[in-house]
Model the fold of this input.
Amino acid sequence: MFYPSPDSSYIRPAKRGKHKIFIGMAPGVGKTYKMLEEAQLLKQEGIDVVIGILETHGRKETAVKAKGLEVINTKAYNHQNITLLEMDVEEIIKRSPQLVLVDELAHTNVPGSPREKRYQDVELILAAGIDVYSTVNIQHLESLKDLVARIVGVVVRERIPDRLLEEADAVVLIDVTPETLEERLQEGKIYAPEKIEQSLKNFFQRRNLIALRELALREVADTVEEEANTYPLNGENCTIHEAVLVCVSTYPNSVQLLRRGARLANYMNARFYAVFVADPDRFHSKEESLHIETCEKLCREFGGTFLHVKSHNVAEEIAEVAIKNHITQIVIGESRQPRWKRLFQGAFTQRLMELIREQNIDLHIIATEK
Done:
């Protein structure tokens, strides 16, 4: 893939620092190496560059590429009688460089750290007017959790909000073929020899790498398209005004629906909404209330608007919300209830379709896991 040479004009004083993310389909594609390579060139141009945190994982080429760059000392934390090191954000802000390098953006900090996630550390550094280069793999995006779990058979625990990519000033895809990545793994350039065979049989299976690469390519393509849509074409904005509405309920599968809806909205550069229609005569259990709060929080992390309304007629209320907010796509979940309840939902779905038929709104019925 072609990479433009670093431009020193990118690093300039501002109220908020600029954020450049290096993203790839899997460990070992060269994200950290490329970040260090650009940082070295910027240093030669006189830019004040420091390393905030670097994870070489024993890769010699990566360690060599970091030579000559100032490293901010990490901060030690004691957790269960084990000393663990984390990035010292306060020291970085005190040092106040022009650019700081932060590896593994999705990392979860040690319990007891001032902030739970490393991306929150980065947001604090950016707020201090310091530019940041960071790295992340595609499987760490929040909205891809369910899809990645189906692809690789593992739930990725460390995740970042999708908005980080949307808010970034630059997103650079580090792309290699699955064959090249397999070769690097077998040559011991990614993991230690004793982990190679196990990795090839699990995460680094060819089919997994192909699927993850497609996700990475699509994500960056969508980011570029969204940026292009912010510029006028022949005096007009070329954005297509799509809007996605996800209908959530007290059932756990609502979380999966939100992620699917967020992906749909992202692909279409659409506004994103979620709605919960509560029965005015029914009280929710503590567990149900917490579930709805989780859905609302997740919706907002995706940059969406969460609507909590009350009505005895769910279908009519959803249709009204959709029309009022100029929704073009509605997402509901497929029922996994007993047959008699499915018949009721069939009537609900049919009624909703009747209400939106003349509004040019598409209805998506999504199958979710139990």
In short: The domain at 240-366 is CATH 3.40.50.620 (Rossmann fold). The longest strand covers residues 271-278. The CA atoms of residues 186 and 193 lie 8 Å apart.
